[in-house]
Structure formats: structure tokens, C-alpha cells
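name: query_chain
kind: protein
chains: 1
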Amino acid sequence: MADTLLDVAINREPYAPYIPSLEELPQGDIDGVPLTSLPIWCAWKIKPPRKEGDKPGKVPVSPRDGRTKGWSLKDGDGVSRCNLDFFDTAEQAIQYANQHRLQGIGIATNREYGIAGGDPDHSRNPETGEMSERAREIILSANTYAEVSPGQAGYRFIFIGSFGGFTGNRDDLEFYEDGRFLTITGDHVEGTPRRIMERDLTELGKKHFPLDSAKPTKPKTARTDQPDLTEKPPSREKVDLDSLMLPKHVEEWIKYGIADPSLDRSNCLFGAAIELLKAGVSESQTADILTAPEHGIHVVALEHSAGSHTAARRWVERYTLPEARKRAEEANGGSLPAPKRAYMELLTDAQNMDEFTPPDEVKDLAREAGSMERLTREMVLRAIKKSTGLNISDLRAITKEAKRTSMKPEGVSKAKRHIRPMMIDFFPDIVTDEEGEPVRALQTIPNIAAMLDHYGIQVSYDVIAKKVKVIVPGASGSPDNADNSALSSVISLAKLNEIPTDQVPAFIATIADERQHNPVADWITGATWDGQDRLPQLYQTLVLADGYPASMRDLLVRRWLISAVAAALMPRGFRTRGVLTLQGPQSIGKSDWLKSLVSDVQLRETAIKVDHLLDPANKDSVLGAITHWLVELGELDGSFRKADVARIKGFITADMDKVRRPYDRLESEYQRRTVFFASVNDSQFLVDETGNTRFWTVAVERINSLHGIDMQQVWAQVVELWRSGEKWWLTRDEETELEKLNRGHRVVSSIRELVETGLAWESPANYWERRTASEVLKTIGFDKPTNAQAREAGAVLRERGCNSRMSNGVTKFMVPKPMVSGFASLG
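structure:
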């Protein structure tokens, strides 16, 4: 981490709205699980101050149902805890905040996932961005993601771990491990990591909130109805290993372990671990049970791990489980049983679910869990909640209903609903017998279309991706193989209805072509422009290199955006005129800026392609380019050889593409719906001497790709510009100005260098003489110049303004004499 911190948000308005995209959030993960996928995120809104001079309030809003109450609960000791049933994934929080035009999103500090944070308030000058020394020391010590607070008068940092329980709120400093939410402003403090890091900040907590300053905790009172706890709980009957039930004495260990602070509760935790392992529960799930807050015994582990759920689990894994496993193996005759089949199957199924899992399948699994003991039931329900994002209270209600009606299925049903053949009368094209009775359906396009509609299968042709999309209701599986799986499902249905299947794929393609879909057009026209001009704000995200005119940047970006709209909306006749090319230092976010133009995460993944190596002679390379809306040309610095330039320029500006896709019988002709973007590091990358106006070069020094601009509104504005008739190409005068700027980006060849340095350009005009380009090259050291070298030299001479005329069929230029030892040859 840098020793210096740079505040980059000096002029931001206090409490300005900021709703990031998923990629713009600070990233981080817990054991490989991204923080953005955990239910720790909420939306938030402003609450007006009660009186003048007070700060406005920040009210969390649940992305699940919009409620603002119940996000923080008190435990038995009166300590605030974040209620994670209130929160949801980052994607849901972003979607809810955008949909309801809220202020932004926030993250919950909580011990369940070990998310903690600090808030040095009144530590920043909002006018100058100056940081107080105490805030600087704290943020540098934390060494994790830090940003400016929404009021612009302080900072906050977020990390995975704990302060070792040394938390509090005093002297404009707050350290929290649970019970608070932190708003995300996106105003990253440069010099700190851009990721939410895993840290143990116990020493930092001790320094600022020592124990003598902490609030005393409420003492626990021992229950008076306790049995004798001086010895191990009584033995029970051996547990049936094929059942889902945990041995009841595990429950007693846990109950005893949290009942009386005077006990050696570590032994209670140890005893519970032994019984769980003896019953066939895996070590991983044993650690989950013993550190899950709702089971209570986690307080024992927390006493040994500075109050962090993550640290508690590690403590159990390191110090409790190894010895517990030995004892359990001894008790079981030297080995442990295999994990109980039904429990592990249910848990695995729960972990494999996602937000697209059909509701009926989720309910079936929750009902299965209803027949289990409380602890294992809760572990399955928590896994379902984590995988699907559903409210755990709703899942518990399903299990209660299952228990009430005594529904105890033996295992998770994998069978899908029974699918019946269609009545033959539903098909438009049928074969009848002699009496006119329908016998079978023919293999025709109308019959396949009728079958698709009957079973609710959606078929369409994506004009951007140039592919057929088939969506089968209730289908689950790998997204990587979704297309093949969907086609197999349709073929299976055709067989079920006794329709021959050899032409089904071709018929589906024909049906899809009649049901075209343009996801880019849907998104850029999906919002009505509100009249606010956001284009200048977008232009300014590109901080220019010295000497590059802002007017040219604004012109090129504006025209390029309009060309992207035309590509998406014009049914025929579109061709792009220029490649927006950002030239600047490495790793400043040039590619990220392109991705920031589409804030819809799902559309961004399918419509934008970055770092594409373009080869117009390669069919796969061409398909990779034309099946996306915005395409970044990769390795532009070195991938364009001079011999390929003309071919590449021709491809970029084509209006149609003829390609034969794999397994197609005929060549297909596609309307071009792609515009191109490029990013280069080297300032000299153009290899052609002339005609470089197809590369709309913008020289940049810095880029703000985390701008937070409402891009759907930007595109809505550009759509209006296109509809009003504004062009997306450059005029002749504008191309001339661009060509002048592009000269500084041309690769300097040895021919150009020798012509420009080997002739006495400053000598008087009366010492100049007429020579052919070949003669010029010979005078400066080329014994036998080739035709290509002579043509290049002639282009340089014309560019230098040398007068030319034809003489005896050859072109001669008025040129100065060659330099001799650094001086002009005047003889």
C-alpha cells in the first residue's frame, strides 16, 4: 500500500446519489465466495434532518420487500446485530435502488460473515479534500478499501475480519463489527486497496478502544432449573446412521454449553463436536453448526477468537475438531461412519441451487428438511437461502407446514413434472385415416411452432448475438451448455409427440427468425430521456494528455456514441465510420471505460467483447466480432501489419458480413450491428502513412471508469440525437483536423526518418533541385531502393509540401540537397 493517500472526490456534493454497477463495487471474497453474492447488501435513502444544522439521516431499505424497519435487532445482552433476513445480494440491492430511484446501496457489518468497518468522522475538509492526520494513520493501518463518506466530511474503511471485540463510538471515531450498515459512495481513496481485504485489526481496535473504555456487558444469569452439570450428559441409545436425526445429546451439549457461564464451556463445545462426528456429520458441517449464531453455542468459540465469526470457525477447525475426531474414532471402534446419505444429499442439492431454480423445487427441498432435527434442518435452510437469496423466514414456514401435515418424503425428488403429449387436434398439419380421424402430426414448421407454444418454450433470434435462443420453462443446468440442452429438450418433446426430429433444428431456426429480438435496442430505448444533458459529464471521464484539444475528444465520443445507436436501431444500411481509440498509459482503465458504458450487468456480458484479436481472413475471428455490439480491438499496437491495414479498414467499415457458420449448409449475410473501440499504450501505433481517419484517436492521461453516470439515460439522450438526424461520421474538415492529430501517432519508419533528417530542409530554395523519390533515397544512403520504399519516400515528400511534376513519365520532386556531416551540401 502507498505511503500517501490521495483524495479524488473534492468537488462531490454531500449526500449525492450514487448507485454503482456490480463491477463498480469494491470486490472481495470469503473462501472464494464473492462478497457481492452474500446477503449483506441493502439500498438506502435520505431522511431529512430534524432541525437546521443537523446531518440528514441514512435509512436502510430492504431489497427484498422495501421495508425500513427490522434491519438491526438486539440480542440477549442488548447488543445490536444486523438482521441478515433484511439484506440481500448486491445485485438485488442495485436493482431495487435503481427501480425506486433511491440514494444508493450499503453493506452490513456483521459477525456472521466477518464484515467490519471503521468511520473516522469530521476528518476531512470538504472544500479542499485535506485529510486529518488521525484519519490518515487509521486508514494506512487498516490497509483495506477506503472511501469518502457521503457527507464528504469523513471517511470509512471496510474489511473482512474483526477488531478483536475492541469497538465503540467516541471522539468522532466509530469501529463496528455488527449492527451497522455502511453506505457505498464510490469515492475511493487512492493509495488504499480497491478490494475489501481480510485483516485482523485487533491492535488497531485496542489502540483506540481499550477495554477500560468499553461499555460493560450485561452479565448472564444462570438458569435455576439446570440438571447436574458436573459430569458428561447421560448416554443415549445409538443413533440410526441412515436417519437424518442428530443424536439428542448433541442438543444437550449445546444447551448446557450456553446455560451457565461458570461451566467449562470449551468442554461442552468439545463434547458436541465429538457427538456430531460420531453421528456421521462431516467436519466442515460440524464447524458450521458449532459456529452458527442461531444455535447459541457459537458464543463459546467467540470467546477464543476475538468475536469474529470467521475467526471462530477457524478456531474450531484448528483446536476443537482434530482432537474431537480422535475421540470420536476411538468411540466408534477406530473409524467414523460415512456422512449420512440423506442429510448430505439435501445439503448438496441446496448448495447447487441458484436464483433461477424453479420455486416448486425449492419448496420440495424445504419440505424435505422439515423432517429433520432442528440443527440439520437449519443448516439445509441456510444453504438454500445462501444459494437462492430467498427469505429464510419463508423457508421455515414451509418446513413448519410440512411437519404439521406429516409430510416426510424419503429423499429429494429429482423427477420433473410429468409431461404429456399434446392432443393431436392441436397440431395444424396432421395425417388422417380413411375415416378422417387424425393419425399423426407431420414434421412441419407450423406443427413445431404449435408444439413450442403449447409447452411454453420461448424461441427467438438475437439480432446482436446472431444466434437462436431457446428458453425451456423450469430448465436447470450449466449456462455453458444451455443452448444444446434446450435443443435436446425440444427434440425430446417432438419424439414424445411422434414427430420426426431430423428437421427440428432447422425448423426452430426458421421460427426464431420470425421472432427477432434486439436486447440492445430494448435497453437503450427502454427509458425515456429526462432532458438532462449528461454527455459533457461522460466526456470529462477521459482526462486528456497535454496538448490534445477537448473539442476533438467531445466530437469523436459524441459521433461514436451515435454510431453505436445507429448500429443497434437501423434495420439496414448501417456502417461504422470510425474506431474510437483511447491512447494512454497502461492500466488506467481504458477497457473498463468501455464496459462502463453499459450498466446492465447481464447485457454487458453479452453485448461487449474486450481484447478481441481481429483477423478478417479468419471466420471465427469475424464471428467473434460481429456477434457483439461494442468490440474492443486487442493488441492494436502490434497486431496490425502494414500489409493488413487496407483489409482491416475495409472490414471495419463494411455494412454487411457474409459468413458460413459451423454446420450451416449455406453462407449467411448479416447486417452489421457492431461498432469498434480500441485501446493502445504506445503513442506511435498507426502503421499506414495516409488514410488514418478511421482511427478516432483520443490521447488520454487518466480515465474515470467508476463514474456512476446513469448510462441508460445517456443512451436515451443519444437515441434522441440519432432520431433528430445528427450524423455519426466526420465532415471533410473534421477528418483533416483528425489526420493532423493522428500524424503524431504514426509509427516512424526508417524511410521517413532518413528523408526528414538526411536532407537540408532549412537550406535556401535556390539550392533545391528536382529529383525522383528513388534518386532522393540514393543520395541519403539507399543503394538500390525498392518500389515500395520509393512510394513511401514520395508520400513523405508530398506531406512535406515538396512541389512535384511529371517529367518523361516519372514524378520528380523539388527537394533540398542532402546533409553532409551535419551541414547542408551547398556545392
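note: Residues 620 and 662 are 9 Å apart (CA to CA).
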